[in-house]
Write the structure tokens for this entry.
Amino acid sequence: MLRENAKKHPYDFGYFLTFIMLLLLAAAAVLLLLPSYRDYRAKKQQAIKMERELEQLQTERDKRLREVNELKTSPAAVEKVAREKYNQVRPGEIVLTYPKQHTGDPAPAR
């Protein structure tokens, strides 16, 4: 009879047990989702890096396409490449070569 007349306290064992269960459920969710989140962040960083690399490669490709187009349309460009890369000269021209200048520190005196 004493029990029937006693008021229930709002923080009885049932509420405490429910709180603990919810807390455990939240901790389990964090532990299960954390590796996936880390993988997501790593993949996102990798995607950003690959996008930068793609931009650089596209820029290089565009540069090379311009060079190819110039070589197809401009005799001066062809002559420049022939002279600089393949050391070709026109008939009657004389090639002057100079020794390479030493830019390092001079040799110590003996």
Summary: The radius of gyration is 39 Å. Helices lie at 2-5, 13-73, 75-86. Residues 10-86 form one domain. Residues 13-73 form the longest helix (61 residues).
